[in-house]
Amino acid sequence: MSRILVVDDEPYLADLVSTALRYEGFETRIAGSGASAVALAQSFDPDLIVLDVLLPDILGTEVCHRIRTAGSQVPVVFLTARDATEDKITGLTVGGDDYVTKPFSLEELILRIHAVLRRTSGAAQIPARVGFADLVVDDDTYEVWRAGQRIDLTPTEFKLLRFLVANAGKVMSKRQILDHVWDYDFGGNDGVVQTYISYLRRKVDAFEPPLIHTMPRIGYVLRLPREDR
Description:
This protein is α/β, with parallel strands linked by helices. The protein is 40% helix and 21% strand.
């Protein structure tokens, strides 16, 4: 189990990211300041750090610099609202491995984390392709196949399907799907989930057997059909 340190002074966002990563099978810790992040980088010994740039005590870039100066080469994914090119260059110059700007989708962040871990830890440890039954999803190329045939999906459809595949067999509520697939501050209603589930069904479940199932008043689950009892 890979360990990820989430550093952000916004408790709601930190908890949201941490929960999403635990769904993916990661062990997580949260730090709300730069000083606590530097300390946890030593005691927790994470495999990757998700690091906000604008922290209340010191900048995330300085946190990264201190961690690197201490001899750690742990991968760092910067998370920030500052999207100017010079800010990105600064983050990467001090030793960051990727840079994700707010607002963001949790699924995109998770895909970026997987990609960074593959680059830094070896592709064999974290596969680029995940799947269920005859369905295959490739995180690197954003391609999807079912029964050996490629399926063209929009970016949002891909994120939704990737989330369902990552949680195959688990019932995901509409609220969970909204939080993980759409922007964390998305203000719309959960009707958008039903709409995109219908889009996915037309493409993914054009094959037999159907894999996307509705759990009335609860949500959706990716699984094989159950045999009639």
